[in-house]
Amino acid sequence: MPGEKLDAIIFGASGFTGKIVVEDAVEILKDFKWGIAGRNESKLKRVLETIGKKMDQDLSHIPVIIADVDNQSSLEAMAKKCKIVLNCCGPFRLYGEAVVRACIDAGTHHVDITGEPQYADIIQLKYNELAQQKGSYVIPTCGFESIPAEMGVLYAELNHPGTLNSVELYWETKLNYVDKSSKAILHSGTWDSIVYYMQHAREIATLQKQLNCERIRPTNPKLVMKSRIHQIDGVKSYFVAMPTAACYMVQRSQRLLNLCEGKRPIQFGTYIGFSTFWWALLFPILLTIGYILAMFECTRELLLKYPHIFSFGFMTHEGPVEANRKAIEFNYILKARGWYQSTPHDPDPTYEVVVRISAKDHYYGVTSKALLLCARTILTERAKMPGNGGVIPPGYAFYKTSLLQEICSGKYGLKFEIL
């Protein structure tokens, strides 16, 4: 019917990640009315034509909406046309807030694929109350950066036979080059987000202090992260402690579950793995140099202009070739420690559950499917979500929904298992 609202609109559909989301939407959103949006109509139609040929389907019936982050009225018009916007247009530090504002004003839900903690914190601080008033759910970091970790903590909790005190996540990535003509694993859009994240890294502590100002009862014993390079049983990688976007989101989810549900918060920390001890030693040094370069405009422009040089070829303007993208693997090992009984009697945890989450094509394939599943969950299970809207992290937003069961069902490439 003319004028009838679409269920979902994929914004930024002609971008590198957006195209992958559109391709996955053909199956995941097959029972919904959805469209695509961006600023260039011919590029959007070409996306539908290319994906249609690849999947042997006619996608010409999919609505195309013109919306530009530099034109607020176009964003508002887009938001009014649907129930939820799936935002794939980053860097979100630069382009995300305008889309969020348009969605909230329209009472439309919003999910995105950001991995930028500052952006996620800023929109929670600025728009949470307004989103609640408008009945709009705004859920940032609904891609690989957060969903496997958030759902992994919930999976560990459900499979722990007592009280869970802490979860330590160990992340390792395996590069499998099918096409050796390129070693790129990420698109330069992701690199841009990393550069802007490093530029504003000093903001995080201030934003986190403002965001987490509510008093909660301390959880004991306190999780103390290992500061040294180390290995864990059964894994060859060398790990170093490093906060990720997932770390901030999981911690915020656990705080909200404590404040709003009275649930004992689970402490959470992340480690990143490297193939050799020397890479584990060198990486924090390289990261520090990156932070310094990102602070100054002249060197920041060089970082943005030449991602292939500064990332040693792992991030390029062209992005990874499809064969290599789909062959990359990741493993999360989650060590969940607590007590066997529902009420702790010993001062230190006495029981451990170890969870492994694994998949291929996690940077883009997992991100795409996770984003679409989050959107579908909001459309179908809104009554199970907390409150009547708000800007909230995924672990809190989807705690009582069936998102975990759907994601770990095996249909979407993610494998959850107890070791």
UniProtKB/TrEMBL annotation:
The keyword Cytoplasm does not apply. The chain crosses the membrane at residues 277-296. The keyword Repeat does not apply. Residues 9-139 form the Saccharopine dehydrogenase NADP binding domain. Gene3D superfamilies: NAD(P)-binding Rossmann-like Domain. Keywords: Membrane, Transmembrane, Transmembrane helix. It holds the Pfam family Sacchrp_dh_NADP. Belongs to the saccharopine dehydrogenase family. This is Saccharopine dehydrogenase-like oxidoreductase. It comes from Musca domestica. The gene is LOC101889279.
